[in-house]
Amino acid sequence: MGVPFCRYFKNCPVCLYQDLRYEESVRVKANLVRKFLDIDPKVVPSPKDKFYKFRVNLRAKRLGTGRFLLGYTQSKDSVFWIDLCPILNPKINENLQFLADKFGSTQISTWDPVEGIGKLESLTVLTDGDLLVLSVNLKKELFLKEFTFEILDENRNFVGVWWFLKEGRLLGGRGEMFLGVRVGGKSFRVSPFGYYSDNLHIIPEIWDVFSGYREVLAVGTGITFPLESVLTYVDEHALNVREIDENKTIYFSPNQYRSDQPQDIPIKPSLRSQNYSYKP
User: Fold this and answer.
1) Is the peptide bond before 192 cis (omega within 30 degrees of 0)?
2) Each residue of 91-126: pLDDT tens digit?
3) Which of 29, 166, 214, 245 could form a disulfide with 249 if both were Cys (CB 3.0 to 4.6 A apart)?
4) What is the span of the domain harbouring residue 12?
5) Does 46 score more than 60 pLDDT?
6) How far does CA 275 lie from the centroid of its chain?
């Protein structure tokens, strides 16, 4: 048996097997995949059993008292609030309260799946262990330009903030969309979007499987490799982006995307020094 390392274990809906040794929990999860998907999975154990998640999706909920919560989905209409999660990368943990306070200071309505009303559903936070990129995930259209600038100006850990409609459209943003990460001796670009693992140690394994189909890999997962090999990246949500300045600056224009003919995007100076806005 293992010793749970989280004070919220058994209450939090995320970690179910902390009372097992890590090796046993891996076997249990692999058996679940075999049972329900009828496939024999390749298991890639994590090098760490704590602080390994480099990306997390946090559901947002504003209570009737006005308190703003960020946490994990516990049920259709409830959120399990977290102040610190021992499986999240420390850089994400350090900024949870900032995000809760910042979004709590606004009048943004949060999505109520029972009533079918509200706008803000969740926040996706991505880190490379040093910097952070934020996706504001919406059920209805909203883009607060000045609020976006405030996040980047008040907290220099954040280098990109993007407002994303869950139906599949980017509404606006500022800063960087990708972070460069080095895993297994290789450098990859990752964004908050796509279907790659929240534990980045598995990215080289994904790349080895799909490396012969680089376009499929980029479109389906949001992973590209190496950093210098791809100038234009198109993901499944029709974002056409071009990286310049050694991947330090990203400019995008949803209007210029055509699925049958990806186009170069005009190069702009650093977004840190320019106001960027997009109005649909």
Assistant:
1) no
2) 999 999 999 999 999 999 999 999 999 999 999 999
3) 245
4) 1-43
5) yes
6) 24
Q: Per residue in 101-114, is it b (16+ CB within 10 Å) or e — as a string?
A: ebbeeeebebbeee
CB 50 within 8 A of CB 87: yes
Looking at the structure, do residues 139 and 184 belong to the same domain, yes or no? yes
| Torsion (CA) 3, 37, 194, 99 in degrees, nearest 10 | -30
Which 8-state DSSP code applies to residue 274? S
The answer to whether the beta carbons of residues 195 and 170 sit under 8 Å apart is: no
Q: What is the CATH number of the domain that holds 151?
A: 2.40.50.1070
Between CA 174 and CA 108 the distance in angstroms is 19
Total structural domains within the chain: 2
Diameter over CA atoms, the chain: 57
Residue 278 lies in a domain: no
14 and 88 Cβ atoms separated by less than 8 Å: no
Say if 212 falls within a structural domain: yes
- Whether 95 and 130 map to the same domain: the answer is yes
| Alpha helices per DSSP H over the chain | 22-37, 90-104, 145-154, 203-210, 214-221
**In terms of domains, do 171 and 248 share one?**
yes
Percent of the chain at pLDDT exceeding 90: 41
Q: Are residues 142 and 22 in the same domain?
A: no
Find the Cα–Cα–Cα–Cα dihedral 22, 82, 193, 253, rounded to 10°: -160
Q: Which two tokens stand for residue 143?
A: 């883009």
Instruction: Return the structure tokens found at 242.
Output: 């071009």
Taking the model in full, what pTM does it have? 0.79
Same domain, 19 and 102: no
Which helix (H) or strand (E) covers residue 9, if one does? none
Q: Is residue 247 part of a domain?
A: yes
Query: Are the C-beta atoms of residues 240 and 263 closer than 8 Å to each other?
Result: yes
- Residue 219: pLDDT over 60: no
Cα 87 from Cα 256, distance rounded (Å): 39
